[in-house]
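Here is one chain, start to finish.
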Amino acid sequence: MNFASDNTSGMPAQILEAIAQANDGAAPGYGTDPIMRDVRDQIRTLFAAPEAEVFLVSTGTAANALALASICPPWGAIYCHGLAHIEVDECGAPEFFTGGAKLVHVSGDDGKMTPEALAEMLARAGRGVVHNVQPAALSLTNLTECGTRYSAAELATLSQIAKSHGLSVHLDGARFANALVAEGCSPADLSWRAGVDVLSLGGTKNGLMGVEAVVLFDPAHAWEFQLRRKRAGHLWSKHRYLSAQMVAWLQDGLWLELAGKANAMAGRLEKDLSGQAELLFPRGGNMLFARWPRSKHQRLQAAGAQYFLWPGGQSLEGRDETPVSARLVCSWNTAESELEAFTALLAS
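Its structure:
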């Protein structure tokens, strides 16, 4: 009953096989391997973006922080939701890699900023005033940290507001595949056609050992990104092992198949929890947030169920029935037996 995170899952056989094949013989390093050319071609084709530049790193933190550093100066402001991953889970990496840029919070329910809140923040941002940080970038997370999803139309509306104020747009897509499958549109519609300039395309949470792609739809930022990646220590010498994972993941739609499985399991879990728990946010993909009595949490965890209490700082100690809330994440290899065991314990 492992619902702790999609980071805890292993890799499908196709990825392991691709790494083993890449291990045969020698290959050029630092991203000049032949497999990387295939990765670039696949992403350009999938996103209908023939001019896009594509670079690989091994962590989502590196992808987000380096992407933002490429579009935001040290004196810039990056507008994001107060629960955005770059705010709550990156240990200041965006601020560090940008050289001091400021994260400015934009409000909205369920982890999603509203157009009205963004427009209001930008209207009083202090552009051209030497005493203020200067508006530089908008960063959106899809899926959000609350498990909700921005639609393509919502992304386009927010991007249009940002661009009318001269901002570049970054999309943190650690779970982009899950959002894409749930939205049922093309990769282009959920990225550059909606105004996104740079995408952090996450693979680690969706079956890969550890690789994320940074997709620069504006190739003008490519050289700066390469220099920043090297200077930050995130350019792998044996890069072919990153390339092999990514190319196998994209091949024949595997990335969407894996995300679809995770979303389907979360959908079934959502149905099974109906009437037994209070769901806190609309489900956008493969994550659920739910609340139920403390004693049931104690019973579940005593039986080995794994999930994170959300928000942190809650305690399961005590005998009262004060509700406790949790985050439940399904992965590409979540089994139906895990769902059945979990919901049976919750109902008992």
